[in-house]
Amino acid sequence: MIQLSQRLNPAVECISILARRFSQHPGAPRSLREEILYICQKYKLPTESLLPLLDPLIQIETHVLEGLLPIEENVQLLFAYHNNPDIANLAWGMYFLDQMNITLADLSPQERLPYLHVLLCFCLGGTNGDLDGVADLASLSLYLEDLSCPPCVKWICQLFWCQPEKYQSRYRQIMARGIELFRQVEHLADPLLEQMLPGIQEALKDETHNSHLPLHFQPDESMPSYPMAMNFHCSSVIYCYNLPETHEHPSFTKLHLVGMLRQYLTELLAQYNNACASIAGSARAISDVHRVEILQALQDGPLCNLELAQKLDFSAATVSHHMSYLISELFVTAVKRGNRVEYTLNKDKLRQFLRLFRISILQDDGE
To answer: Percent helix, strand, coil in the chain (nearest 5)?
Structure first.
């Protein structure tokens, strides 16, 4: 079984914060709050089901960004998501270089080349081997001409190729400061993490774990595994890339990450779907004008079948037929008093139905 860390990974969280902030996808959320609102809109969830719960994470993100910004535009592109898959940026590649204690400035041009290929594959969302023919800036430019990616992607790839040591150094400066800022407020996430860890473990037992990259792996006990806060909703994901044991043949390694609210969101969506079924069933019960008239007739107090028939000019059989629907959804309660069955309007149930409708459809919890 995968050994999930009980702590967040500050470097992973900082990359996620900056990747969202500088994303190049048109219309993409730029903050955690925007991400939450987007998810609520996409899945038609009430905002109050997530926003208050995730407020500590919003505070963490705000603290980190306030301490890091501004960042120069070309360096922003190290972190920005440019392409599919969503993890396509140079920062993830440099994260793995740091895990291997590899400094590009310490390598000869020949030793550095396979690492540059791996890093550019991260940025371009390609696979290892795609850049085998790229050996200098001119061949890289020719390679990029044939790709249908945004101009900013080609720009940062060329800038990085020309000065990889400079960009790795700047990445490390930003990450060192970001990790320091994150750790100052990391404790804010502790109660939520403690609450959600059992659900994450449960998710690990059941889900199929696929990489966002072209290679697919099943998680194993040897790979590092962390809960994610800033990508709280992600499916269990394996971020790949391992740097080479030999310089000639870069290989891959695996890092397992799972959103800390993944299981919670699964349960919340199931609850929402149940709410939809409840609304639909209740709506069917009052979908006939005669049933609505019966409810109106009971506003002033309990009535029996005959009294309702006389008041509404219905037959007793018609009242009985429609009453069965109203009773089944608990909009009306029936109490037998001797030979008399009295029907009473269940105002609490009606209020519950209206409130559920407002929350689920209108996202309005007003009373």
So the answer is: 60, 10, 35
